[in-house]
Amino acid sequence: ARIRVAFEELGTTFIKLGQVLSTREDLGGRELACELAQLRANTPSDPAEVVIAMVESELGAGIDELFLKFDSTAMASASIGQVHRATTHDGHDVVVKVQHPGIEQRIVNDLEIMQKLAEIAEQQSERLTQYRPVDTIREFQRSLMRELDFQRELKNMNRFRTNFQDEPDVHFARPYPKLSSRRVLTMQRLDGISVSNKAELKTSGADLNEVAHRGAVVFLDMIFRDGFYHADPHPGNIVVLPGNVIGLLDFGMTGRLDERLREEIE
User: Fold this and answer.
1) Are 70 and 63 contacting, i.e. CB atoms less than 8 angstroms apart?
2) How is 100-151 classified by DSSP, letter by letter?
3) Is the pLDDT of residue 211 over 90?
4) How many helices (H) and strands (E) does the chain have?
5) Which tops the pLDDT comparison, 20 or 88?
6) CB of 246 within 8 A of CB of 218?
7) Catalytic amino acids?
8) What is the pLDDT of residues 42-99, one digit of tens each?
9) CA-wise closest residue to 23 among 230, 215, 234
Protein backbone atom coordinates (compact mmCIF):
# COMPACT_ATOMS: atom_id res chain seq x y z
CA ALA A 1 0.00 0.00 0.00
CA ARG A 2 2.88 2.40 0.79
CA ILE A 3 4.37 1.76 -2.66
CA ARG A 4 1.02 2.45 -4.32
CA VAL A 5 0.54 5.69 -2.36
CA ALA A 6 4.09 6.78 -3.21
CA PHE A 7 3.41 6.26 -6.92
CA GLU A 8 0.21 8.31 -6.62
CA GLU A 9 2.04 11.17 -4.91
CA LEU A 10 4.88 11.13 -7.45
CA GLY A 11 2.38 11.74 -10.21
CA THR A 12 1.56 10.82 -13.78
CA THR A 13 4.61 8.92 -14.99
CA PHE A 14 4.97 6.86 -11.82
CA ILE A 15 1.24 6.10 -11.89
CA LYS A 16 1.69 4.83 -15.45
CA LEU A 17 4.65 2.70 -14.37
CA GLY A 18 2.56 1.31 -11.52
CA GLN A 19 -0.21 0.42 -13.97
CA VAL A 20 2.27 -1.50 -16.10
CA LEU A 21 3.70 -3.30 -13.07
CA SER A 22 0.17 -4.24 -11.96
CA THR A 23 0.06 -6.63 -14.91
CA ARG A 24 3.46 -8.16 -14.09
CA GLU A 25 3.05 -10.47 -11.11
CA ASP A 26 6.29 -12.12 -12.16
CA LEU A 27 8.25 -8.97 -11.25
CA GLY A 28 6.73 -7.80 -7.98
CA GLY A 29 4.50 -10.64 -6.83
CA ARG A 30 0.73 -11.04 -6.75
CA GLU A 31 0.14 -8.91 -3.63
CA LEU A 32 1.93 -5.86 -5.05
CA ALA A 33 0.33 -6.31 -8.48
CA CYS A 34 -3.16 -6.35 -6.93
CA GLU A 35 -2.40 -3.22 -4.92
CA LEU A 36 -1.03 -1.37 -7.94
CA ALA A 37 -4.15 -2.31 -9.91
CA GLN A 38 -5.92 0.44 -7.96
CA LEU A 39 -3.87 2.96 -9.96
CA ARG A 40 -5.94 2.14 -13.06
CA ALA A 41 -8.82 4.26 -11.78
CA ASN A 42 -9.52 7.41 -9.81
CA THR A 43 -6.89 9.61 -11.49
CA PRO A 44 -7.98 13.24 -10.88
CA SER A 45 -9.73 14.84 -13.87
CA ASP A 46 -9.21 18.35 -15.24
CA PRO A 47 -11.91 21.05 -14.84
CA ALA A 48 -14.47 21.34 -17.64
CA GLU A 49 -13.20 24.72 -18.85
CA VAL A 50 -9.65 23.36 -19.20
CA VAL A 51 -10.85 20.35 -21.20
CA ILE A 52 -13.02 22.41 -23.53
CA ALA A 53 -10.20 24.89 -24.10
CA MET A 54 -7.88 22.02 -25.04
CA VAL A 55 -10.40 20.52 -27.49
CA GLU A 56 -11.16 23.86 -29.14
CA SER A 57 -7.47 24.75 -29.41
CA GLU A 58 -6.51 21.39 -30.89
CA LEU A 59 -9.41 21.08 -33.33
CA GLY A 60 -9.66 24.75 -34.29
CA ALA A 61 -13.35 25.35 -33.66
CA GLY A 62 -15.89 25.95 -30.88
CA ILE A 63 -17.14 22.94 -28.96
CA ASP A 64 -20.69 23.44 -30.29
CA GLU A 65 -19.40 23.50 -33.86
CA LEU A 66 -17.49 20.28 -33.29
CA PHE A 67 -20.12 18.24 -31.43
CA LEU A 68 -23.90 18.19 -31.14
CA LYS A 69 -23.48 17.24 -27.47
CA PHE A 70 -20.37 17.21 -25.29
CA ASP A 71 -20.50 16.06 -21.66
CA SER A 72 -18.00 18.25 -19.81
CA THR A 73 -17.90 15.80 -16.89
CA ALA A 74 -15.31 13.11 -17.52
CA MET A 75 -16.60 9.53 -17.57
CA ALA A 76 -13.07 8.32 -16.76
CA SER A 77 -9.64 9.81 -16.14
CA ALA A 78 -6.27 8.12 -16.54
CA SER A 79 -2.64 9.12 -16.21
CA ILE A 80 -2.28 10.73 -19.66
CA GLY A 81 -5.79 11.92 -20.44
CA GLN A 82 -9.47 11.73 -19.65
CA VAL A 83 -12.51 10.58 -21.60
CA HIS A 84 -15.78 12.42 -22.24
CA ARG A 85 -19.05 11.27 -23.80
CA ALA A 86 -20.18 13.19 -26.84
CA THR A 87 -22.47 13.01 -29.87
CA THR A 88 -21.42 14.07 -33.35
CA HIS A 89 -23.57 16.27 -35.58
CA ASP A 90 -24.31 13.09 -37.55
CA GLY A 91 -25.87 11.60 -34.44
CA HIS A 92 -23.11 9.10 -33.65
CA ASP A 93 -22.32 8.36 -30.00
CA VAL A 94 -18.60 8.81 -29.41
CA VAL A 95 -16.04 9.26 -26.67
CA VAL A 96 -13.44 12.02 -26.77
CA LYS A 97 -10.06 11.35 -25.20
CA VAL A 98 -8.39 14.61 -24.13
CA GLN A 99 -4.78 14.84 -23.01
CA HIS A 100 -4.06 16.54 -19.69
CA PRO A 101 -2.50 19.99 -20.34
CA GLY A 102 1.25 20.15 -19.73
CA ILE A 103 1.49 16.40 -19.26
CA GLU A 104 4.24 15.88 -21.84
CA GLN A 105 6.84 18.06 -20.09
CA ARG A 106 6.05 16.51 -16.71
CA ILE A 107 6.53 13.04 -18.18
CA VAL A 108 9.87 14.01 -19.77
CA ASN A 109 11.10 15.31 -16.40
CA ASP A 110 9.88 12.21 -14.56
CA LEU A 111 11.52 9.87 -17.06
CA GLU A 112 14.88 11.53 -16.48
CA ILE A 113 14.48 10.87 -12.74
CA MET A 114 13.46 7.26 -13.37
CA GLN A 115 16.50 6.72 -15.58
CA LYS A 116 18.84 7.95 -12.82
CA LEU A 117 17.12 5.76 -10.22
CA ALA A 118 17.46 2.75 -12.50
CA GLU A 119 21.17 3.42 -12.99
CA ILE A 120 21.69 3.67 -9.22
CA ALA A 121 19.74 0.43 -8.70
CA GLU A 122 21.98 -1.46 -11.13
CA GLN A 123 25.11 -0.06 -9.51
CA GLN A 124 24.07 -0.81 -5.94
CA SER A 125 22.18 -4.11 -6.09
CA GLU A 126 23.17 -7.33 -7.83
CA ARG A 127 19.68 -8.68 -7.18
CA LEU A 128 18.03 -5.77 -8.98
CA THR A 129 20.53 -5.93 -11.83
CA GLN A 130 19.09 -9.26 -12.98
CA TYR A 131 15.83 -7.43 -13.77
CA ARG A 132 17.71 -4.98 -16.05
CA PRO A 133 16.06 -1.80 -14.68
CA VAL A 134 17.95 0.55 -17.05
CA ASP A 135 16.79 -1.33 -20.16
CA THR A 136 13.28 -1.62 -18.71
CA ILE A 137 13.00 2.13 -18.13
CA ARG A 138 14.36 2.86 -21.63
CA GLU A 139 11.70 0.66 -23.18
CA PHE A 140 9.06 2.23 -20.90
CA GLN A 141 10.25 5.66 -22.06
CA ARG A 142 9.94 4.78 -25.74
CA SER A 143 6.49 3.35 -25.24
CA LEU A 144 5.20 6.23 -23.12
CA MET A 145 6.44 8.95 -25.48
CA ARG A 146 4.65 7.21 -28.35
CA GLU A 147 1.50 7.03 -26.26
CA LEU A 148 1.47 10.82 -25.94
CA ASP A 149 0.82 11.14 -29.68
CA PHE A 150 -2.88 10.41 -30.22
CA GLN A 151 -2.39 10.52 -34.01
CA ARG A 152 -0.21 7.43 -33.64
CA GLU A 153 -2.95 5.80 -31.58
CA LEU A 154 -5.48 6.60 -34.32
CA LYS A 155 -3.25 4.87 -36.88
CA ASN A 156 -2.95 1.87 -34.54
CA MET A 157 -6.75 1.65 -34.32
CA ASN A 158 -7.10 1.66 -38.08
CA ARG A 159 -4.44 -1.02 -38.45
CA PHE A 160 -6.17 -3.30 -35.94
CA ARG A 161 -9.51 -2.71 -37.66
CA THR A 162 -7.98 -3.72 -40.99
CA ASN A 163 -6.26 -6.79 -39.52
CA PHE A 164 -9.51 -8.02 -37.96
CA GLN A 165 -12.05 -6.76 -40.48
CA ASP A 166 -13.26 -10.30 -41.20
CA GLU A 167 -13.38 -11.35 -37.53
CA PRO A 168 -16.89 -10.97 -36.02
CA ASP A 169 -15.77 -12.03 -32.52
CA VAL A 170 -13.72 -8.88 -31.85
CA HIS A 171 -14.52 -5.20 -32.29
CA PHE A 172 -12.22 -2.18 -32.43
CA ALA A 173 -13.77 1.27 -32.12
CA ARG A 174 -13.86 3.41 -35.26
CA PRO A 175 -11.84 6.63 -34.96
CA TYR A 176 -12.98 10.02 -36.28
CA PRO A 177 -9.89 11.65 -37.89
CA LYS A 178 -11.57 15.02 -38.50
CA LEU A 179 -12.35 15.26 -34.77
CA SER A 180 -8.88 14.15 -33.67
CA SER A 181 -5.40 15.63 -33.30
CA ARG A 182 -2.15 14.92 -31.48
CA ARG A 183 -3.81 15.63 -28.11
CA VAL A 184 -7.48 14.86 -28.82
CA LEU A 185 -8.85 11.53 -30.06
CA THR A 186 -12.50 10.93 -30.94
CA MET A 187 -13.72 7.37 -31.39
CA GLN A 188 -16.85 5.25 -31.47
CA ARG A 189 -18.34 4.59 -28.04
CA LEU A 190 -18.27 0.94 -26.96
CA ASP A 191 -20.70 0.16 -24.13
CA GLY A 192 -19.50 -3.12 -22.69
CA ILE A 193 -18.66 -4.85 -19.42
CA SER A 194 -15.08 -5.05 -18.19
CA VAL A 195 -13.64 -8.58 -18.17
CA SER A 196 -12.73 -7.99 -14.53
CA ASN A 197 -16.42 -7.67 -13.54
CA LYS A 198 -17.26 -11.37 -13.34
CA ALA A 199 -20.54 -10.89 -11.46
CA GLU A 200 -21.95 -8.43 -14.01
CA LEU A 201 -20.81 -10.65 -16.88
CA LYS A 202 -22.70 -13.60 -15.39
CA THR A 203 -25.81 -11.47 -14.84
CA SER A 204 -25.68 -10.32 -18.47
CA GLY A 205 -25.70 -13.94 -19.64
CA ALA A 206 -22.21 -13.85 -21.11
CA ASP A 207 -20.54 -17.22 -21.67
CA LEU A 208 -17.33 -16.80 -19.65
CA ASN A 209 -15.61 -19.79 -21.23
CA GLU A 210 -16.38 -18.47 -24.70
CA VAL A 211 -15.20 -14.99 -23.73
CA ALA A 212 -11.91 -16.38 -22.42
CA HIS A 213 -11.43 -18.47 -25.57
CA ARG A 214 -12.15 -15.58 -27.92
CA GLY A 215 -9.91 -13.21 -25.98
CA ALA A 216 -7.02 -15.68 -26.14
CA VAL A 217 -7.50 -16.25 -29.87
CA VAL A 218 -7.54 -12.51 -30.56
CA PHE A 219 -4.19 -11.95 -28.85
CA LEU A 220 -2.62 -15.05 -30.39
CA ASP A 221 -3.69 -13.79 -33.82
CA MET A 222 -2.22 -10.38 -33.09
CA ILE A 223 1.13 -11.85 -32.08
CA PHE A 224 1.63 -14.85 -34.36
CA ARG A 225 -0.44 -13.92 -37.41
CA ASP A 226 0.03 -10.16 -37.63
CA GLY A 227 3.15 -9.44 -35.55
CA PHE A 228 1.35 -6.33 -34.26
CA TYR A 229 -0.33 -6.50 -30.88
CA HIS A 230 -2.06 -4.51 -28.14
CA ALA A 231 0.62 -4.06 -25.46
CA ASP A 232 -1.52 -2.81 -22.57
CA PRO A 233 -4.13 -5.56 -22.09
CA HIS A 234 -5.13 -4.84 -18.49
CA PRO A 235 -8.82 -5.52 -17.61
CA GLY A 236 -9.82 -1.88 -17.99
CA ASN A 237 -8.96 -2.06 -21.69
CA ILE A 238 -10.95 -5.21 -22.47
CA VAL A 239 -14.75 -5.23 -22.46
CA VAL A 240 -17.38 -7.76 -23.42
CA LEU A 241 -20.05 -6.59 -25.86
CA PRO A 242 -23.39 -8.31 -26.62
CA GLY A 243 -22.97 -11.73 -28.22
CA ASN A 244 -19.73 -12.45 -26.31
CA VAL A 245 -17.87 -10.09 -28.65
CA ILE A 246 -14.52 -8.85 -27.35
CA GLY A 247 -14.12 -5.07 -27.42
CA LEU A 248 -10.65 -3.58 -27.09
CA LEU A 249 -9.83 -0.05 -25.91
CA ASP A 250 -6.78 2.22 -25.63
CA PHE A 251 -4.28 1.61 -28.44
CA GLY A 252 -1.48 3.93 -27.35
CA MET A 253 0.82 1.04 -26.42
CA THR A 254 1.47 -1.54 -29.12
CA GLY A 255 4.21 -4.06 -29.82
CA ARG A 256 5.69 -5.61 -32.94
CA LEU A 257 7.32 -8.94 -33.72
CA ASP A 258 9.10 -9.58 -37.00
CA GLU A 259 8.50 -12.82 -38.88
CA ARG A 260 11.80 -14.38 -37.79
CA LEU A 261 11.09 -13.86 -34.09
CA ARG A 262 7.54 -15.18 -34.49
CA GLU A 263 8.90 -18.33 -36.09
CA GLU A 264 11.42 -18.79 -33.28
CA ILE A 265 8.69 -18.44 -30.64
CA GLU A 266 6.46 -20.93 -32.45
Assistant:
1) yes
2) PTTHHHHHHHHHHHHHHHHHHHHHH-HHHHTT-HHHHHHHHHHHHHHHT-HH
3) yes
4) 13, 11
5) 88
6) yes
7) 232
8) 677 899 999 999 999 999 999 999 999 999 999 988 878 999 999 999 999 999 999 9
9) 234
